Amino acid sequence: HIQACLFDLDGVLVDTAKYHYLAWKRLANELGFDFTEQDNERLKGVSRMASLDILLSIGRLTLEDAKKQELAARKNDWYVESISRMDHTEILPGALEFLQACRENGLKTALGSASKNAMTILNNTGLTPYFDAIIDGTHTSSAKPDPEVFILGAQELGISPESCVVFEDAEAGIEAARRADMNCIGIGSLATLGQADFVIASLAEMTVERLDQLEQA
Ligand code: G16
Ligand code: MG
Fold first, then answer.
1. How far is Cα 97 from Cα 105, in angstroms, rounded to an integer?
2. What is the mean pLDDT of the chain?
3. Which are the contacts of 162, defined by CB distance < 8 A and separation ≥ 6?
4. ipTM for this model
5. Quick check: bond before 145 cis, omega within 30?
6. CB 59 less than 6 A from any atom of ligand 1
7. C-alpha torsion sign, points 79, 193, 168, 146
8. 66 CA to centre of own chain
9. Cβ–Cβ contacts within 10 Å for residue 150, how many?
10. Are the beta carbons of 180 and 161 closer than 8 angstroms?
11. Is 53 one of the annotated active-site residues of the chain?
12. What pLDDT, in 10s, does the model give residues 71-117?
């Protein structure tokens, strides 16, 4: 029986991928190469430093660690500037309604994000009060597909993994949920998220009743 819902942030509750994209593209352009929206797909759910490594491989650049730290910090400054202007209008369709429904039905809720900027985003959009536990990139030592972020979330809620369901838009996140022995609902397209128990286009399609579909799986 499902007792807790764990949510990824970017791509599930808010669309911050566009801000990550603009900042990474600006960095790539400064380094002398292009970075497309298709390239950006590879960064979804991936940690900041791993994202930089992917970006540098696209530009065929190999840099020293100190230089990489500097570039990641520069990208993050631009990104933080973008998210500082976010508000509740940037919550994705159905997300707030489903979080409210979870709480009205006695389900626990947790955030499980790779981002070190999750608190800024939650506070600016007004989503912070909807979570019983918040685990983000400042709490974890291993990034998705490592299951750490979701295991910590379930522990803080005091709910066993098999009674948890993770909502994820990234392949790495689905794998993390699987490795945590949790149920998993994909947000996006079946083509990339086939490892989920089922896939929906957005949380606007989700209801508490639909969680029963997981019991039958
Ligand atoms: C998000 C994004 C990733 C980003 C990562 C780290 O993860 O999907 O593209 O690279 O966070 O973000 P930051 O640079 O802010 O620490 P999630 O897990 O919320 O989808
Ligand atoms: Mg995501």
1. 12
2. 96
3. 181, 182, 183
4. 0.93
5. yes
6. no
7. negative
8. 27
9. 29
10. yes
11. no
12. 999 999 999 999 999 999 999 999 999 999 999 999 999 999 999 99
Neighbour-count burial of 23, counting CB atoms closer than 10 A to its CB (0-12 exposed, 13-18 middle, 19+ buried): buried
Taking the C-alpha atoms of residue 92 and residue 162, their distance in angstroms, rounded to an integer, is 27
pTM of the predicted protein model? 0.95
What is the crossing angle of helices 148-157 and 171-179, to 10°?
50
Q: Which of 10, 132, 136, 197 is catalytic?
A: 10
- The count of residues in the chain is 217
Q: Is 10 a catalytic residue?
A: yes
Question: 79 near 20, Cβ under 8 Å?
Answer: yes
Q: What is the DSSP string of the chain?
A: ---EEEE-SBTTTB--HHHHHHHHHHHHHHHT----HHHHHTTTT--HHHHHHHHHHHTT----HHHHHHHHHHHHHHHHHHHTT--GGGBPTTHHHHHHHHHHTT-EEEEE-S-TTHHHHHHHHT-GGG-SEEE-TTT-SS-TTSTHHHHHHHHHHT--GGGEEEEESSHHHHHHHHHTT-EEEEES-HHHHTTSSEEESSGGG--SGGGHHHHH-
46 alpha carbon – ligand 1 mean position (Å): 6
Instruction: Please answer whether residues 119 and 136 qualify as being in contact, where contact means their C-beta atoms are separated by less than 8 angstroms.
Output: yes
- Amino acid at site 206: M
Tell which residue, 162, 205, 201, has the closest CA to residue 184: 162
The neighbourhood of ligand 2, an ion, using CB within 5 A, equals: 8, 10-11, 45, 169-170
